[in-house]
Amino acid sequence: MCQICSMDEKGDGPVFGVFSAETHELNLPTQDPGDLKMVNFETIGYGGRDNNSLISALKEMNAEAVIDVRHKPYCGWNRNFCGEVLKDKLAAEGIDYLWISDLGNMTRDINKIKLVNEARGIEKVLSVATQYEYDTVVLLCAEADEKKCHRSYVRDKLAAAVNLPSFHPV
Hints:
alpha/beta
């Protein structure tokens, strides 16, 4: 079975692609994001949650993949929300995990969003969603309130990229 990887073998940084357990090779998606079928892009924040409630919420959303849009996949107050630990916990539940550092907000200010590399990050999400034909992809960040987090901005950009209506919760 293939698994989405988030770190290279040396741990030097994020790698975008899929690692095949059979061949031990990293495969990069090659499909055109224009081939994207209807994908439901949701968002979730782990702030105020424990690991079990996060996983329960993801299951309720029918999440097939979680894309971590934090600038760095670390949580100082709960190790369970650190990238590699979270990846293992989600894999045990049948949910893929990928950290895309390009979608991290470098400002921490919702009014002055500056992503590391917006275009490349959006392209990566669309490529992964296309390659693996996910129905529901959930964007993850720390902030509990979506309205105070850049992940809603990312979701809206994804929706615009594939001409989908953007969803705004009440």
